């Protein structure tokens, strides 16, 4: 039996930081409101001309450096994003050209905030099937480009960043299981126009925040339970929960229901905002590089996003 494991992680945040106090000058909002309702204090915003693939390239090179691998060692690229540089070619292909690993399969998955969970699950299967040796699973976004900066209900939430993991074959399971789901019946509660359906508002993120909040908490708890049950484990076995970083209240509610102390939850939402597909790999990399997450730790990753799409993964790091 062949398994995959995470060889290394990497992430990148653009230099520009936008604080809640900066937003107070742009919108009818307050630092107090944003912190109380979301936990967000600051977020990073891409520079003019900096694209999703630019951010991803930095994250991937950091992961490759940490693994001691070269770009030409990569033989699969799965790229989760909702903010692609172009409609086509996809971001995976654009990144492949930068890395120079020409000829290897490269594609993107557009499952909104669950983009990385889908990318990880797909990359894991390629490695386990023996069709890839060194596979990149990426989540990267420039959500600032599709944000309506006059809409206070969404502008305070979303931000830019990138995260990546490099998978490699292993004798013992690193990725223990992944669990993906979608329910398109909820597509109107959270979406962004800009595609070929011209009846929808162009580009801006449209969200019914209250409904999304309730469904997100319930669904994420079920998704975590699913991963634990599949592996015959209780939440007490987890060393770390690395959740989607959408809202601190969603993260706290999820941890409370699982009876998991917040000391075992990696939280970056206060510094990163909601970076959609990038949020989980960014938080994972922060956990690893800060020394909190160590080799051998049992980690649960989860995300929920527009679609709705959601997923979890249980990992022995
Ligand atoms: N600053 C100040 N006031 C704001 C505001 C802002 N940025 N955004 C909304 N408000 C106001 C509303 O207009 C409303 O005012 P009213 O009572 O006078 O009508 C009030 O605050 C409450 O709005 P509501 O939408 O009920 O707040 P909430 O407690 O549900 O918090 C969210 C809003 C968006 C933070 C919350 O619903 C949420 O996080 N939802 C999930 C979002 C998410 O995670 N999406 C991504 C999933 S991947």
Tell me the strand order in the biggest sheet.
1-7-6-4-5
Q: From N to C, what is the helix and strand string?
A: EEHHEHEHEHEHEEEEHEHHHEE
Strands, total number: 13
Strand-pairing-aware structural class? alpha/beta
Report helical residue fraction: 25-40%
Task: Please report the number of helical segments.
Answer: 10
| Low-pLDDT segments | none
Q: Give the end-to-end Cα distance, rounded to a whole number of Å.
A: 18 Å
Coarse shape: globular
The amount of beta strand, in percent, is: 25-35%
Bound molecules: coenzyme A
Mean pLDDT over all positions:
96
| Largest sheet, strands/sense/barrel | 5 strands, mixed
Radius of gyration computed on alpha carbons: 18 Å
Q: What would you note in describing this structure?
A:
Helix 3 (52-67) packs across helix 4 and helix 7 runs parallel beside helix 8. The two termini are 18 Å apart. The protein has helices spanning 20-26, 31-38, 52-67, 91-99, 115-128, 152-155, 209-230, 248-258, 269-272, 279-289; strands at 3-12, 16-19, 42-45, 76-80, 106-109, 135-142, 160-170, 175-182, 190-192, 205-207, 240-243, 298-305, 309-316. It has 317 residues and is α/β, with parallel strands linked by helices. It is built from 10 helices and 13 strands. The structure holds coenzyme A. The site of coenzyme A has 21 residues, from helix 2, helix 6, helix 7 and strand 12.
